[in-house]
Q: What sequence folds into this?
């Protein structure tokens, strides 16, 4: 078996990398460059930081440089870990076996804005907010809009198979990336799109390869350029928040709005009772609500005024149809407008005794059928409660459910449970508890016909072990693809149980 | 699990870093965790340095994560010294931080990245990791009492008020105008414009007997003792001439006088600090200054970081521009300008002039995109690199006071500065 594993790093490799990159400022073997490319915002075992530090980071500016770096790594069996924003919530960019971090942030050029065929071609190191700042003058936007919109980067969106808050209206990353250039684990540069076209939205030629290179968590290559969808800058935005005295009424209302058939519907968000309780208890920006508010539904519409105005009236009817109370323009517009800033702000949580302690936030996601939401909610909260009881470093910050399907928001949901973790208290036991909690959360999702993850990725311990279970009979195909494209397992090794692809090679 | 840090991993926290390391970490660790544990990097794309280098080490989040890593014994001050040079102390990261935006009310919290950078730079000096350009700069500063803003040409204390030639300004009095080193020796038109505007409005003020550098840049580069010595001299001089009010012409001085000096002197600091741009805007609004001369220019305004981001001062400069007859003012709102910078602050232009130049080039490019002929700033430090970039892109860079003085019919005089080789700046 010729699998890349952690091995003493030869300084000759740095010399070769410098020869490839040709600029010592972009080959970074120094310790602070490595330490700062180790973690992502997901909970991190701070006490084991050293275990995940890569050996060197490179900042390429062209696909050719990436290709040569990967060829070198493949020749020498050195792990390669692609890194874009490093803002993921599931460790896709965390090196598990050292190696070379290929940081794409310098590949952030806008290469072409095509207002005729409605595409923009970019280097994958660009951030969506920055891209849209440039697109504004042309009356178009690239509507990939995750919670991390101000800081995440196109390459990472491709690598993780990102989900967009506006996805019900405009699609998610996999719908919005029309084609891409990427470097395979053996160093070849290829282009994939629909058929052979870079600017086509549908083709039936050959295999549908584009989706294979979406959401692979950096295990199948490194995207270096992408041609993206441009949509008309929406003339009109409408957002509404409705309060409920009962979760099931909110759940029913969310479903009714999602099934409404309104084409301008960009998303529906359901806050459960634990979430509202948490906001009331500890959210610094919480605007006081009556005690009977226990659940909330938020809705957003985007489009032309001719569409959005009548649709908004329908949303107001549906929002109130099961007892929902409109929370007013200030909350509806303000909370929606500040949605990006709201997603990661808590500086504190509480221990069992109510004592405030510094906590980091973790959001554990899943894709679930609408029918499963009430039951999964109960089981997830019960699980977290059990871990809080035993390990006093967790806090339950409630759940959100978001419409999940691109253009078809009615049937399934991206569901998240937010767990506060007292990161400073992590040790081997506590970390193991966290991993076990993750695993149990994922097992509940699978038991209810869901997927471990809708957008973060099943790349870390706790989730990763369940990937073969979730994929079932297709797992053998996945392993065959991985082994074929990455014969030496150099590309982000150790993720998603893909080492199994090589274990079989040994047995045969 | 084996790691690739060698046998020393973890040792730095246990002893090799020493007591200073431990004390530094103890002082800053909880604040660093506030960033580290949310870890969402919204600061990154507004950071002027990160926008250029795209290097994760140069991001505000990395500055905080470095402290956590120091606590874990993975890094020491020498490991991060070069990273901490990559900051203009513009404050954009603090404003864009969700922790500031959304927990501020509850905790009275503002992410204090600028303070962290200043503290780390001071630790760098103490621990023997001085940066060569800053070291030379400070040596010349201590020698001449003003910053070496003329490069190879020495600045001399006896010429610190030459900019005021012919203006007949007294020494001392209730109010003192403080003119910073860049304006006193390099862009003297800036100093002359503000002084003549105040005179025209009937504001009584004088100069110091012996004005030294405010000490702010020294503090920004980590030279705390030197910065404080300058502050002590200036405060003594203010008291000696009977000053109660200090008019800070330059935003950098305003930061020094309202943040650094109070931290040095506590309650023993009795001065009212007036920001010149606010004063002049008041004078125009109150009719004590009238702007009658049409200025036929199409301008946009550059929000100096220390006004807009550090002090929230963005309306008075715009009020002034709107009061200038004949002017076409194409504005870019001050929040958008959180991500703009000239790159001149925080000593960056001394150590990394190529990054400063690129930040300024991009700023001027944005102005050019608005199809203006003039970029107006309100900070002399920004105007040198912006003007260099403007020369290349056909955009003139003016100071707000120069423009307003012209509109007030004042013959400003002085010099807008002669470019000095970057090597000279070091």
A:
């Amino acid at each position: 078996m010729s699998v890349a594993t952690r091995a003493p790093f030869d300084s000759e490799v740095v010399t070769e990398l410098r020869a490839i990159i040709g600029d010592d400022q972009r080959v970074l073997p120094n310790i602070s460059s490595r330490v700062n490319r180790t973690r992502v915002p997901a909970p991190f075992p701070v006490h084991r930081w050293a275990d995940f530090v890569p050996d060197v980071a490179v900042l390429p500016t062209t696909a050719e440089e990436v290709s040569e770096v990967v060829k070198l790594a493949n020749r020498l069996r050195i792990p390669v870990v692609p890194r874009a924003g490093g803002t993921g919530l599931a460790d896709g960019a965390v090196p598990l076996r050292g190696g070379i971090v290929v940081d794409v942030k310098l590949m952030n050029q806008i290469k072409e804005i095509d207002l005729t065929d409605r595409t923009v071609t970019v280097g994958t190191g660009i951030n969506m907010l920055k891209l849209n700042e440039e697109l504004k003058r042309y009356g178009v936007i690239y509507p990939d809009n995750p919670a991390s919109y101000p800081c995440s980067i196109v390459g990472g969106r491709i690598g993780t198979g990102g989900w967009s808050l506006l996805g019900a209206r405009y699609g998610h990353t996999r719908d919005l990336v029309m084609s891409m250039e990427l470097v395979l684990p053996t160093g070849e540069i290829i282009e994939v799109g629909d058929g052979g076209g870079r600017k086509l939205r549908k083709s039936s030629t050959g295999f549908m390869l584009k989706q294979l290179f979406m959401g692979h968590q950096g295990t199948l290559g490194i995207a270096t350029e992408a041609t993206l969808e441009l949509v008309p800058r929406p003339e009109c935005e409408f957002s509404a928040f409705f309060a409920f005295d009962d979760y099931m009424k909110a759940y029913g209302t969310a479903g009714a709005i999602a099934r409404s058939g309104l084409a301008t519907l960009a998303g529906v968000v359901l806050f459960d009772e634990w979430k509202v309780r948490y906001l009331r208890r500890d959210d610094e920006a919480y605007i006081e609500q009556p005690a009977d508010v226990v659940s909330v539904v938020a809705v957003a519409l985007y489009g032309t005024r001719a569409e959005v105005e009548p649709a908004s009236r329908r949303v107001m009817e549906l929002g109130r149809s099961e007892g929902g109370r409109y929370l007013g323009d200030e909350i509806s517009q303000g909370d929606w407008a500040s949605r990006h800033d709201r997603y990661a702000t808590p500086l504190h949580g509480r221990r069992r005794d109510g004592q405030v302690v510094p906590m980091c936030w973790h959001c554990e996601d899943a894709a679930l059928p609408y029918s499963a939401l009430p039951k999964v909610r109960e089981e997830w909260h019960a699980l977290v409660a059990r871990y809080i009881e035993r390990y006093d470093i967790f806090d339950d910050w409630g759940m959100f459910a978001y419409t999940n399907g691109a253009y078809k928001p009615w049937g399934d949901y991206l569901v998240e449970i937010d767990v506060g973790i007292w990161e400073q208290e992590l040790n081997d036991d506590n970390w193991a508890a966290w991993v076990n909690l993750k695993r149990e959360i994922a097992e509940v999702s699978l038991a209810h016909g869901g997927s471990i993850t809708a957008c973060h990725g099943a790349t870390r311990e706790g989730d990763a072990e369940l990937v073969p279970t979730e994929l079932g009979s297709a797992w053998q195909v996945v392993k065959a693809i991985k082994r074929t494209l990455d014969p030496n397992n150099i590309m982000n090794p150790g993720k998603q149980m893909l080492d199994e692809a090589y274990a079989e090679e040994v047995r045969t | 699990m084996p790691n690739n840090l060698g046998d020393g991993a973890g040792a730095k926290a246990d002893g090799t870093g020493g007591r200073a390391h431990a004390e530094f970490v103890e002082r800053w660790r909880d604040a660093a965790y506030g960033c580290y544990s949310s870890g969402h990097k919204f600061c990154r794309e507004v950071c002027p340095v990160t926008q250029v280098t795209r290097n994760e080490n140069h991001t505000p989040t990395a500055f905080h994560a470095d402290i956590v890593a120091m606590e874990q014994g993975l890094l020491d001050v020498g490991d991060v010294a070069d990273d901490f040079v990559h900051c203009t102390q513009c404050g954009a990261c603090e404003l864009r931080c969700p922790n500031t935006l959304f927990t501020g009310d509850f905790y009275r919290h503002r992410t204090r990245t600028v303070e962290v950078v200043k503290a780390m730079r001071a630790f760098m000096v103490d621990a023997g990791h001085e940066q060569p350009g800053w070291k030379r700069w400070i040596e010349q500063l201590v020698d001449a009492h003003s910053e070496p803003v003329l490069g190879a040409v020495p600045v001399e204390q006896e010429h610190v008020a030459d900019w005021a030639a012919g203006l007949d300004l007294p020494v001392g009095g209730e109010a003192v105008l403080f003119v910073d080193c860049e304006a006193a020796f390099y862009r003297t038109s800036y100093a002359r414009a503000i002084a003549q505007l105040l005179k025209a409005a009937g504001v009584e003020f004088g100069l110091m007997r012996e004005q030294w550098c405010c000490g702010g840049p020294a503090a920004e580069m980590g030279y705390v003792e030197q910065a404080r010595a300058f502050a002590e001299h200036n405060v003594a001089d203010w008291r000696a001439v009977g000053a109660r009010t200090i008019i800070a012409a330059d935003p950098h001085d305003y930061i020094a006088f309202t943040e650094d000096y109070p931290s040095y002197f506590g309650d023993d600091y009795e001065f009212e600090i007036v920001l010149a741009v606010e004063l002049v805007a008041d004078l125009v609004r109150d009719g004590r200054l009238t702007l009658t001369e049409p200025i036929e220019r199409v301008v946009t305004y550059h929000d100096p970081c220390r006004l807009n981001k550090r002090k929230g001062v963005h309306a008075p400069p715009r009020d002034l521009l709107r009061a200038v007859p004949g002017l076409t003012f194409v504005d870019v709102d001050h929040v958008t300008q959180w991500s703009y910078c000239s790159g001149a602050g925080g000593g960056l232009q001394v150590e990394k002039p190529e990054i400063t130049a690129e930040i300024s080039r991009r700023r001027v490019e944005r102005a050019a995109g608005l199809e203006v002929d003039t970029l107006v700033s309100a900070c002399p430090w920004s105007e040198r690199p912006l003007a260099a970039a403007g020369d290349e892109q056909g955009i003139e860079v003016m100071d707000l006071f120069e423009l307003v003085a012209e509109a007030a019919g004042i013959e400003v005089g002085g010099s807008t500065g002669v470019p000095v080789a970057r090597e000279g700046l070091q």
